[in-house]
């Protein structure tokens, strides 16, 4: 049933609005119409199918909110901060300003982690730099492991907990604020596998406009983008552990000098995007 028939004031049909506003997004996305539809869906609280298939009426107030958000998006502000969530591993994750938006390539890291958990019957896994909880929460959700997660950002701790609750793994997702695995120093011996999608962007890298709205501590890792790996492996004895971390595609050669016994794994598009060290079952 269309419950939106009684909208009053200066009304617009939804597709007139989408046609009017979507061209504003041409410079920031390859999908201006889809992104406008998603913003409309968010503002109207309607179903996407209804927005697409029915000529829903939009009130003046709703129109103004949609227009404001489309203009915000046109300035480069990330779509998923506007929508308040991002899908990862088929699950909706809350995201908001101050938290890194999970990327599709990280889903491949999670798939590999789930294979390793199964193959070696692992029980305790760490997620360093959990952000929205994308890695840790999905690994906990799709396997029986307990996850010890950390992040330097208080906002990330807050949002990852919300996501753990949303996906029913609050009892197996323990998150604490801190650097590397400092908050779990006492439990370090129990951790069998360490996962991370750390910051790995070079300090002076030129990034797309929307990425610059994401927290800098989630992105940048010194002059060559390797500060996180250098500091982590200098600090932790990883004997007896499995390590799986995301890396930048041009970082393999330099990482080989830091970690001569590491393997590097390709993503589905054939680029080396993951560092793998098996110091548990080698
Ligand atoms: C690229 S984001 C990844 C977030 C999430 N794991 C994902 O894949 O979507 C990196 C995260 O690491 C956190 N971080 C950066 N340096 C850290 C450190 N030394 N220890 C713990 N967390 C760190 C940042 O705050 C950020 O949330």
Describe this entry's structure for a reader.
The model has no long low-confidence stretch (mean pLDDT 95). With 282 residues, the chain is α/β, with parallel strands linked by helices. It has helices at 14-21, 32-44, 48-53, 60-74, 79-83, 104-120, 134-142, 154-166, 216-219, 227-235, 252-258, and strands at 12-13, 57-58, 85-88, 91-94, 124-128, 146-151, 173-177, 193-196, 242-246, 263-266, 272-278. It folds into 2 domains: 12-75, Helicase, Ruva Protein, domain 3; 90-278, Rossmann fold. α1 (14-21) crosses α2, α2 (32-44) crosses α4 and α6 (104-120) packs across α7. Bound molecules: S-adenosylmethionine (SAM).
Top keywords for this entry?
single chain, 282 residues, alpha/beta, Helicase, Ruva Protein, domain 3, Rossmann fold, 2 domains, seven-stranded mixed β-sheet, two-stranded antiparallel ribbon, binds S-adenosylmethionine
Level of helix content?
A: 25-40%
Q: Estimate the mean pLDDT confidence.
A: 95
Say how many strands there are: 11
Which oligomeric form is depicted? single chain
Distinct helical segment count: 11
Please trace the helix and strand order, writing H or E for each element.
Answer: EHHHEHHEEHEHEHEEHHEHEE
Strand order of the largest sheet: 7-6-5-8-9-11-10
- Under the CATH scheme, the architecture of the largest domain is 3-Layer(aba) Sandwich
In a few lines, what is going on in this structure?
With 282 residues, the protein is α/β, with parallel strands linked by helices. Helix content is 38%, strand content 17%.
């Amino acid at each position: 049933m269309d419950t939106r028939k009684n909208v009053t004031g200066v009304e617009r049909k939804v597709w007139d609005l989408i046609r009017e506003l979507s061209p504003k997004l041409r410079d920031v996305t390859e999908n201006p119409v889809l992104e406008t539809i998603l913003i409309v869906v968010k503002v109207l609280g309607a179903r996407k199918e209804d927005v697409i298939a029915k000529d829903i009426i939009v009130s003046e107030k709703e129109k103004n909110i949609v227009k404001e958000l489309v203009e915000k998006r046109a300035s480069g502000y990330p779509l998923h901060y506007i929508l308040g969530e991002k899908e990862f591993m088929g699950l909706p994750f809350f995201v908001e300003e101050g938290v890194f938006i999970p990327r599709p390539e990280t889903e491949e890291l999670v798939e590999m982690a789930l294979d390793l958990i199964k193959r070696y019957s692992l029980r305790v896994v760490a997620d360093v730099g959990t952000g929205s909880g994308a890695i840790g929460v999905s690994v906990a959700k799709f396997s029986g492991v307990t996850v010890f997660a950390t992040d330097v950002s208080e906002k990330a701790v807050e949002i990852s907990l919300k996501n753990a609750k949303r996906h029913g793994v609050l009892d197996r997702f323990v998150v604490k604020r801190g650097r590397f695995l400092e908050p779990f120093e006492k439990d370090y011996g129990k951790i069998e596998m360490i996962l991370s999608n750390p910051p790995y962007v070079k300090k002076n890298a030129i990034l797309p406009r929307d990425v610059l709205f994401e927290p800098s501590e989630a992105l940048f890792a010194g002059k060559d983008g390797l500060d996180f790996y250098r500091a982590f492996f200098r600090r932790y004895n990883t004997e007896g552990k499995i390590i799986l971390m995301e890396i930048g595609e041009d970082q393999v050669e330099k990482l080989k000098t830091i970690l001569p016994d590491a393997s590097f794994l390709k993503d589905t598009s054939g680029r080396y995007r993951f560092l793998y060290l098996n110091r548990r079952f080698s």
